[in-house]
Design brief:
By secondary structure, the protein is of the alpha+beta class. It contains 4 helices and 8 strands; from the N terminus they run αββαββββααββ. The protein is elongated and about 100 Å long. It starts with a helix and ends in a 5-residue tail after the last strand.
């Protein structure tokens, strides 16, 4: 019986010790404030006005021309790049004529509204832009593709913060859009 009492006493002491330790541990974590990992942009964030230089196709759709725009920005680099793309889309809202595969003359939006920038990734001075599949489907002529790609690249790299841009489609590196190679990084080219 003596061994049984010792075992029960030991078990009781162990239970009391672990229960107290658990209580103290839980009590301590309840007092620690959670760490904010992602901040949501809300109305409490201050917006600041910034000027942007956009490179948009000229009226003849032959070269890129400079256009200055002003917009309000909420701090993060991703927001800035998304804003630049949305500003470009609003400026490139016209239709153009091209010859289809059958030789018929067709009309299409220069940059279709279905083209979406899904997300961005920044690695130092390199920017990765991930577009939906409509980006690839939108390209009808080599000139249109060249102007759209460099409109985006030149507008983003106008900031000294970014030097090169890599374009992805649906989270994948693709060798080419419809006419030009996409497997490389693009740098600003003011000759277009």
């Amino acid at each position: 019986m003596n061994k049984k009492n010792i075992a029960l006493g030991f078990l009781g002491a162990l239970l009391l010790t672990t229960g107290t330790a658990y209580y103290l541990l839980v009590e301590r974590y309840d007092k620690i404030q959670p760490k904010v990992i992602f901040e949501k942009d809300g109305p409490e964030k201050k917006l600041k006005k910034e000027k942007f230089i956009l490179y948009i196709p000229d009226d003849n759709l032959e070269k890129l021309k400079l256009q200055e725009r002003e917009a309000e920005v909420a701090g993060s680099s991703d927001n800035l790049i998304n804003l630049i793309f949305e500003l470009l889309k609003s400026e490139i809202d016209y239709k153009f004529r091209y010859r289809g595969e059958s030789g018929d003359e067709l009309e299409a939006p220069f940059l279709d509204e279905g083209v979406k920038l899904l997300n961005t990734f920044i690695d130092g001075q390199d920017v990765y832009l991930n577009f939906n599949y409509n980006f690839k489907e939108n390209m009808k002529t080599p000139q249109q593709e060249l102007l759209i790609v460099y409109s985006i690249v030149n507008s983003i790299t106008q900031s000294a913060e970014y030097k090169r841009v890599k374009i992805l489609v649906n989270n994948k590196e693709i060798d080419r859009l419809n006419f030009y190679r996409l497997s490389k990084f693009y740098e600003k080219n003011l000759e277009i």
